[in-house]
Amino acid sequence: NRIQYLDLSVFKFNQELEYLDLSHNNLEKISCHPTLNLKHLDLSFNAFDALPICQEFGNMSQLEFLGLSATQLQKSSVQSITRLHISKVLLVLGDTYGEREDAESLQDLKTQSLHVVFPTGKEFHFNLDVSVSTTVSLELSNIKCVLDDNGCSYFENVLSKLQKNSRLSNLTLNNIEITWNSFITILQLVWRTNIEYFSISNVKLQGYLDSRDFDYSDTSLKALSIHKVVHDVFSLPQGHVYKILSNMNIQHLTVSAAHMVHMVCPSQISPFLYLNFSSNLLTDTVFKNCTNLANLKTLILQKNQLKELINIVHMTQEMKSLQQLDVSENSLVYDESEGNCPWARNLLSLNMSSNILTDSVFSCLPPQIKVLDLHNNRIRSIPKDVTGLETLQELNLASNSLAHLPGCGILSSLSILIIDYNSISSPSADFFQSCQKIRSLKAGNNPFQCSCELREFIQSVGQVSSDVVEGWPESYKCDYPESYKGTPLKDFHVSELSCNTALLIVTIVVPGLVLAVAVTVLCIYLDLPWYLRMVCQWTQTRRRARNVPLEERQRTLQFHAFISYSGHDSAWVKNELIPNLEKEDIRICLHERNFVAGKSFVENIINCIEKSYKSIFVLSPNFVQSEWCHYELYFAHHNLFHEGSDNLILILLEPIPQYSIPSSYHKLRALMAQRTYLEWPKEKSKHGLFWANLRASINIKLMGKA
């Protein structure tokens, strides 16, 4: 913003205010007001001439962070806050700082962390004493000393005063522009202080380095970090710099983003426990045949120019204590024909992500590996014949080309598996049964094919703890088929019947078998095969009849009635029925005298029924026991419905109890229930009327001849 003036009394009604950031404005003056609960107050990067410290600041006992800016420092300016114990103080010095400088102005501060930002772009000609007695961590930014004939004498003088501060353990130099000689001198100065952790970042080095010895004795330094170095490659005294760095008697060394093309092996057994040379230009020859890194536990070679994995394997062979190796973001490849891989035997954690490794890498892994990162490579599967992974606990295979979710048959100790962003469409449903020790699975963002196989996996996910499957359900969505694309797996449902082939077969076959059995039983019970044959013959006869002209068919009507009866009732038919009907010039068709020899019984029945005006059935208990009588009744009844005429006459000779009619004679049951029948009277006085009614029902003039 562009605030130039602020009266802190505007916050008088905000008594609970704890955080106030007014940095990067144009403040030149502030009017103070007690804000006792402030914990964070930032007035840095403003246009103050003197330190903007009010008397009221001395009462801010809760203050943890204080950011200030000024162009001049006076010891009296900080008196009001010398009683406060502030965790961190940020002091930004303006462009005109140095004209009126009080070197001792900061000595009475009580802070654990002090960050001083010197003017940008100015040569360092300051004498500010930053060795505040209470400071544990000191950061100095914007240090430039390349034009001074005496090197960085002013800055070296500032650093030399740090020796008297016994509490200072962390020193950070940021945004530095110095010569090579001054850089080595600064390292040597820090070496003799009580500083344990020294970090240098954003360094620009110029000039040449004079050959000199470096005194490694009497140091408290444990870790040196040099990050983001810019220098002239042609003026870099490579051999001398590498020698100084490699022989440092400290435990942790980081040189990253420094355009370093090589690093030599220490000249003697090194105390290095941790080496970080990430974002450089190192090649496969780094530390080749180096036997003096026996104490090294962690080596980071991320973002370099490494090519052959087998060379890295041999590099680690002499690193007896190496436990963690990071060679990610290189161009590593491995060919199985290169032979065995004699890794450091104690290597437990290996990061080979973002390389060009394929499935063959699984035959080149450390024997005791516990943590393996292979994400962003070209791996398609884990070979089934892989051995030696029994100790592996954490495996990262994200961003590869895996098509299947690996089981834990060869990964018996696996507890963490990261396999997202692959090509897995149908993960195995028995994964959690195979991987009993798994406590974290990250398999989202794969092209899941929502099918029956996936349904079983979804069910298995629901049976484990929600903490086990990371990213569920938001990262698990259907990719295929199109109708389900984008659907969360938890919302994908398909029926058990659609997925269970055995159940589907049972569901279809069992009812089919039941139906077949039922049809078979009905066929046997109702004699359906006979009916089918009879219908077939009837159909053929009717087809032949349709080919005969109507007048000719009328001429073929030769009888007034066809009589169907049981042989047991033949006496009544011959003695009573025939004589009483034929005396009136009525023609009767009887099977024993009118059936044509050579034709089948069925065909004779059909012909007689068709040539007769009516069909008379003499019903009695004997009739229902006759199979042929039933067939004759069937054809006559069929003709009744086919012709649409009333051609059936039923004569009840003797009463027939319903229970005596077989169930297969359902047509007879139906006819007796639906149609009126003539009952033969026992009284002789009624016989005349009976015959008269019967003759009247069949009396018709026939065109044909008998």
UniProtKB/TrEMBL annotation:
Task: Please give, as recorded in its UniProt entry, the membrane topology of this protein.
Answer: Single-pass type I membrane protein
Give GO BP annotations, semicolon-separated.
cellular response to triacyl bacterial lipopeptide; inflammatory response; innate immune response; toll-like receptor signaling pathway
- Where located? Endomembrane system; Membrane
**Transmembrane segments annotated in the record for this chain:** 502-526
The residues covered by the TIR domain are: 557-698
Q: Does the keyword Transit peptide apply?
A: no
Q: Which UniProt keywords apply?
A: Disulfide bond, Glycoprotein, Immunity, Inflammatory response, Innate immunity, Isopeptide bond, Leucine-rich repeat, Membrane, NAD, Receptor, Repeat, Signal, Transmembrane, Transmembrane helix, Ubl conjugation
Query: InterPro entries from the xrefs?
Result: Cys-rich_flank_reg_C, Leu-rich_rpt, Leu-rich_rpt_typical-subtyp, LRR_dom_sf, TIR_dom, Toll_tir_struct_dom_sf
Tell me which domain of life the UniProt entry assigns to the organism this sequence originates from.
Answer: Eukaryota
Name of the protein this chain belongs to:
Toll-like receptor
Q: Does the keyword field hold Disulfide bond?
A: yes
SUPFAM superfamilies to which the protein is assigned, alphabetical: L domain-like, RNI-like, Toll/Interleukin receptor TIR domain
- GO cellular component entries: endomembrane system; Toll-like receptor 1-Toll-like receptor 2 protein complex
State its role. Cooperates with LY96 to mediate the innate immune response to bacterial lipoproteins and other microbial cell wall components. Cooperates with TLR1 or TLR6 to mediate the innate immune response to bacterial lipoproteins or lipopeptides. Acts via MYD88 and TRAF6, leading to NF-kappa-B activation, cytokine secretion and the inflammatory response. May also promote apoptosis in response to lipoproteins.
Q: Which family does it belong to?
A: Belongs to the Toll-like receptor family.
The Gene Ontology terms for molecular function here are: lipopeptide binding; signaling receptor activity; Toll-like receptor 2 binding
Q: Give the organism, scientific name.
A: Capra ibex (Ibex)
Q: By its UniProt entry, which Pfam families does this protein fall under?
A: LRR_8 (PF13855), LRRCT (PF01463), TIR (PF01582)
